[in-house]
Amino acid sequence: MNIQQNIKDYTTLTKPKVNLLLVITALSAIFLASNNLPSIQVLVAVVVGGTLASGGAGAINHSIDKDIDNTMKRTSKRPVAGDRISRTNALIFGIILNLLSFLILFLLTNILAAFMAISGTLFYILIYSLWLKKKTIHNIVIGGAAGCFPPLVGWAAVTGNLSLSAWYLFAIIFFWTPPHFWALAMLMKDDYSNAKIPMLPSVVGIDATFKPMMLHTITLVLLTLTMALINEKLGLIYLISCSIIGVYYIYITFKISKEYTKEENLKVYKFSLIYMMLFSFIVIADSLI
Q1: What is the CATH number of domain 3-288?
Q2: CA-to-CA distance for 99 and 117, rounded, in angstroms?
Q3: Per the count of CB atoms within 10 A, which of 6, 25, 78, 114 is most buried?
Q4: How does pLDDT run across 237-271, given as a tens digit for each residue?
């Protein structure tokens, strides 16, 4: 195997697109927690340390999910599933990345930030990948909490503690995650059924998935709006912007619940990603004003 392909495959193990979104959510916490502009040291530590931690978690997940990935069209060509990287090498790579993450965050920020980063990886691997993923339709509802740790890392890196605002950011991502993944699971319903992964749409059907999907989305939007009441840095710009993207998210979700098509489903899935990015950038922007 040539070096270029090797680099590409090891990069793929880190799930770079997912990684980018996680880092952006961590940055939103950094800016919100800082009194003025955050220090370069904290920014570099969280971006690098967070990237290594989530990338390492992704690599370990590739190792664990080889058999599942082989049965799904969407994932069958991943590096481990395609036998270009061994399970052992992916596991070792993931562990090394997480050790480096812990070291960087500990040395450049504090022990709490380092502990939160490693906790996110452990939750993802132990609670979601190894325990819940194959056992319950609530897999992503509970296991999705792994993706909520980056804001805790960012907040802890700045303040050395975890205040109510940090946990609000955690909760916002917690309620964002299920409808985001259910939108994907609707598109990949047959794939998940073939892999015997009990994602909600595969078990109860698409129509029955819309009720919890709407409830989570409405709760998500309400949480974003009430966050302005508990953090004085978030003002009118934040409220108006979050209202606009929140109402639109609820609208498009409600729309496909009444008239489902795969094309509209895909739009909801894509917007769920855009929504979280926009929310994070809104927090950053209003924190600076």
Answers
A1: 1.10.600
A2: 10
A3: 25
A4: 999 999 999 999 999 999 999 999 999 999 999 99
**8: its two tokens:** 């590409």
Residue 76's φ and ψ, nearest 5 degrees, are -65, -20
| Alpha helices, H only, 109-188 | 111-122, 139-143, 149-159, 164-187
Per the document, the length of the chain is 289
Tens digit of pLDDT for each residue in 92-125?
999 999 999 999 999 999 999 999 999 999 999 9
Token output for 123: 């939750």
Calculate the CA dihedral of residues 54, 148, 220, 137 and round it to 10 degrees: 80
pTM over 0.90: yes
Question: Is residue 87 packed enough to be buried (19+ CB in 10 Å), middle (13-18) or exposed (0-12)?
Answer: middle
Distance, in Å, from the CA atom of 131 to the CA atom of 285, rounded to the nearest integer, reads: 38
